[in-house]
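Action item from last week, closing it out:
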Amino acid sequence: MTVIVLTSCPAGLRGDLTRWLLEIAPGVFVGHVSARVRERIWVRVKALAKGGRAIMVYSAANEQHMSFEVHQPDWQPVDCDGLELISRPRGSEDATLIGPPKKGWSKASKYHDARKFCS
């Protein structure tokens, strides 16, 4: 199984991918192709994506039973002790939604410690 997700890519690339894969949602393509075809599709996606983002997830014989390729300069695949993860830049837009990290203990932990020392 192969899944390709396109963001901000030219419409011509979407039309080109419909030759091999089924578009189940705007920019999301799914299909079952051989490894050789998958590699050639990915080369074509990287050539035509230009400034857009493309992510391809496919079945693999590893612990996660999947592997992926990323076409965007900011996001990079990282191997963490046999598990593949995506490393996003630290200054991404999601980091601003979370806010700065809080320091100190939670209220529940403080109450638990207080009860432990009072008993």
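Closing note: The domain at 2-92 is CATH 3.30.70.240 (Alpha-Beta Plaits).
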